[in-house]
Amino acid sequence: EKRVYFFGNGKAEGNAKMKELLGGKGANLAEMTNLGVPVPPGFTIATKVCGEYYKSGGKWPKGLAEEVAANLAKLEKAMGMRLGDPERPLLVSVRSGAASSMPGMMDTVLNLGLNDDVIEGIIRKTGNPRFAWDIYRRFIDMFGDVVMGCDHEYFEEKIHAAKKKAGVEVDSELSAEQLHAVVEEYKKVYKQHVGKMFPQDGMDQLKHAIDAVFGSWNGARAVRYRELNKITGLLGTAVNVQAMVFGNMGEDCGTGVCFTRNPSTGQKEFYGEFLMNAQGEDVVAGIRTPIELSKLNKVMPKAYKELTRLMTRLEKHYKDMQDMEFTIQEKKLYILQTRTGKRTAPAAVRIAVDMVNERLIPKKDAVMRVTPDQLDQLLHPHFDAKAKRDVIASGLPASPGAAVGQVVFTADTAEEWRDKGKKVILVRKETSPEDIGGMDAAEGILTAFGGMTSHAAVVARGMGKCCVAGVAGLNIDYVTKKFTTGKVTVKEGDWISLDGSKGEVIKGQVPTVEPELSGEFGKFMKICDQIRTLGIRTNADTPADSKRARDFGAEGIGLTRTEHMFFEGDRIWPVRQMILAADDYAAMLTNLDMAENDKARKAVEKEYSVAKKQFEGALKQLLPLQRGDFEGIFTAMAGLPVTVRLLDPPLHEFLPQDAASQAEMARRLGVKPKVVQEKVASLHEFNPMLGHRGCRLSITYPAIARMQGRAIIEAALNVKKKGKKVLPEIMIPLVGTVAELKIVKDDIVDEINAVFKERKAKIPYMVGTMIEVPRAALTADEIATEAQFFSFGTNDLTQMTMGFSRDDAGKFLGEYVRKGIYKDDPFQKLDQTGVGKLVEMGTKLGRKVRKNLKVGICGEHGGEPSSIEFCHRVGMNYVSCSPFRVPIARLAAAQAAV
Ligand code: ADP
Ligand code: MG
Ligand code: MG
């Protein structure tokens, strides 16, 4: 069984398709080797070995040691060097790399193979003792920290002291002798904390380093990162052992990170940073502030030209924006890593659109390049341009967006405060992988050091979080929990705002405004529309909402809730009057029916006519108001279908619950307070969600449904008269049996026919139902004989199918999700196995009877990507969601169609 894969001499045993086995880094190192890109040779221990290692409790599987030895020999031969040979010493890096990229989350050891003899050899050969001592001190530090668990801080103290003593600012200013002294100090630190001398045997070093990389897979950082990013099902990390190249041999050397396009804006330009005379991690760690990539053209034009040529080539090859690491050793360029670059939401959209225009990728690939979450970020607010800004500092615009929050200085505090419901800004000198929990908890991140590719910047962009980095003059004091910029002092808990697009730090809370959606965003949405087959409608109750949704691309309204209109302004009063009279009216009607003789009838007739007058009077007041609402919505949506749902909630929701408001109601409607109190008491229900609501109201008070039906059709006729097209769809809620549906529908149709007669005009319309009672889904074939369309009301359907009260389940649902009983909150993501079965079955049964039955979904799930994918799969005609989710639904529907 093969466990180790070689790359070098222009040929590799692996390739880019083998990510799962070789990890992203290993697979791409192999691919680049095969492409002839200058990559230092090496070999990759497969990810599955990491799994074997854990299974056996940290032992190497049989045969691995031999395979590693054989590949090392091959590497030595390719390089013409040997591990531990002072004359021609091979030095290697030992690098982690899983199938999905987890930047900085696992361990890497550089310069492995150094010992006291090898150092002497290197000094003799290179004549560069400064370089030799520099890599040795780096190696002892990294090996001690990463492999042996001797904290980096202990080493850092020593080099800090050395710099202070020498009176220099940065590491690279230390002389050879000074660095040599640092190495001796480091060895002491190592001995003190590890309890052994620093190992001199290369094979011994290598074995320990490989173990450490395996170990880092289950380190706290890596585990947390996988949790946050929902990365599951991986075999483990691969281990890449690769010949070292050196960016720190002198002024004709350097190292850097580059992107084939700008990861912040998406603009097509070479982008990146580098440091001269530096090694690997110096750029990301934010120790020195790096130089912009374009400046490399001045310092080393040949290497720059070669680098940009390779960038273009690799982007064309991978057909996506690449994030690359490079090192220049004595003017010669090496590529050490390439991967798909993480990008901000605006960059993702722009790159997708540009790459379609450049004919680099087809449209169906483009829609997969932007996640629904990224699109969501674009729909989020930014700072009001007119608002006053008290800018107290500025730095690099590391990750765009607007963040407002209270200042905290540690990742832990950020998490604690977030859990208490506070909005926080995490302020750090620089961030490290340990901080990601706190970065996730924060609204935005502010750092004093580090460049555009520093840890803080890269992680923030990946999270879609606003970040301002490298703010010069930002003095942070972790002890007193304060920072100062110039004359301003900001304490823990103070409010600040960050503008991640401009790199500004602003005192106080800057107001935000809604985003505008045009340009690249609009072009991207058009591409989505060309790919998707599912229709996208919106849930809107007002003309303003309808218009906004239309601007967002909604193709109709899937749900207009009429009850919201009942609360608007003063109209609650006729609604309340109607409710007060409704029961009397119904009771009198029954009494009248049941009266045994004329005398008895006469006795109730008077009371009946009073109640009737009250009730119908209230409905008469409501009719023009509702008609006006519908006219507004129909006008806003002219030409597109509009589904109007009849009154749904239990009537008690319209009555005041506290004594003072009840007294006020009694006064306004001219009845005794007791009458109101009794009415409220009589409408009380133990399970209002399973109570007298939905079509059940229309069964007992048909006049309400008739009034609504009339208002809808009169409004439609009025709008049509103005030359606009109207497509009304009347939706009857909470139907459980076809008989119930038929009674309500017949009433409405009867009323509508009356309207047509009065107006001497007609208009096409539909009557359909919401499928939200499980029985309706189970008998959908019967229901479909009366319903001209179905709309799955999955909020109620979930509630009733699972027996979870929507309003109370929050108390225990979290535990259900944590214990894995349900993978997700079923009210957020449609439970496809259970509730989904009813949806699928209802759709099929309905279409069996009515071939062209229009089927849609309304409710929260209509805007949730995994649920949308499900709706696409079961063949729905459309999903309907809130206006702000419409663009996300358009994208999710396109992705479902790919
Ligand atoms: P990470 O996944 O955290 O980026 P890497 O394995 O990519 O870790 O390595 C960390 C740093 O060390 C990077 O800057 C990388 O370019 C550098 N590096 C890794 N291997 C070598 C090598 N063989 N020669 C020179 N630099 C290297
Ligand atoms: Mg890397
Ligand atoms: Mg419902």
UniProtKB/TrEMBL annotation:
Keyword Secreted tagged: no
EC number per UniProt: 2.7.9.1
Xref: Gene3D superfamilies: 1.20.80.30, ATP-grasp fold, A domain, ATP-grasp fold, B domain, Phosphoenolpyruvate-binding domains, Phosphohistidine domain, Pyruvate Phosphate Dikinase, domain 2
Cofactor: Mg(2+)
Protein residues bound to substrate: R561, R645, E772, G793, T794, N795, D796
Sorted UniProt keywords: ATP-binding, Kinase, Magnesium, Metal-binding, Nucleotide-binding, Pyruvate, Transferase
Domain Pyruvate phosphate dikinase AMP/ATP-binding span(s) in chain numbering: 20-57, 61-292, 302-358
Reaction(s) catalysed by this chain's protein: pyruvate + phosphate + ATP = phosphoenolpyruvate + AMP + diphosphate + H(+)
PEP-utilising enzyme C-terminal domain location: 518-897
Similarity comment: Belongs to the PEP-utilizing enzyme family.
Entry function: Catalyzes the reversible phosphorylation of pyruvate and phosphate.
The protein's name in its UniProt record: Pyruvate, phosphate dikinase
Lineage: Bacteria, Pseudomonadati, Planctomycetota, Phycisphaerae, Sedimentisphaerales
Gene: ppdK
